[in-house]
Amino acid sequence: MDTWWEKESLLKFESPTSIFIAAPSGSGKTVFTKNILKHANGMFKVPISKIFFCYSMWQKLYNEMENEIKNIQFYKGLPTMDTLNEWGAVEGHKIIVFDDLMMQGVESEELVQLMCVGSHHANITIIFLIQNIFQKGKSMRTASLNCHYFILFQNRRDMLQIQTLGRQIFPGKTKFFMDAYQRSISKSYGYLVVDINPHSDKSYQLRTDILPGQDTIVYQPEK
Fold first, then answer.
1. pTM value?
2. CA 42 to chain centre
3. What CA–CA distance (Å, rounded) separates 57 from 40?
């Protein structure tokens, strides 16, 4: 018989919220996102009614996602404001995923409005799959400042980005942050969840292995 932790995360995401999943190409972030969406009702505090997945180029993995994930709809490119308003009018808690569309959206007013106003009022969780945490452009700066969760995969080519984020979130505790990051990425496709949601318990701010059925690991500074 299934037990609850095989279907639900031990520490669910606040809802609605905003999530950055950051990693270079080929690091497993899209597969990880698929697993979050597949178990969405066990990953978020509020169940999901609809998932909108925006992409730039079709991948074979999307075929699997169409077959395995309920209520998912794919959309090529960045949605217009009219489309976003249509999605926002759908009843219940929605997810909009932007898969490596940041180069197209760096100056997008639609993304700025979605992050600043639309997400909370329209009950929309936003997930960005990105390669660069500090992508230049008005919309990406706004998105970054409004992000509640960073999920960081291994990035050997640009550790400075990770260190900079650590200094911003954990001033004076960057070593603790970097130690947690290194430990979390030490295994294949490892990642670190950085939780800065204002409603979250700060005791669980850094963690890994968050999917249903996994024993979640929480990193805390030595006292």
1. 0.92
2. 15
3. 23
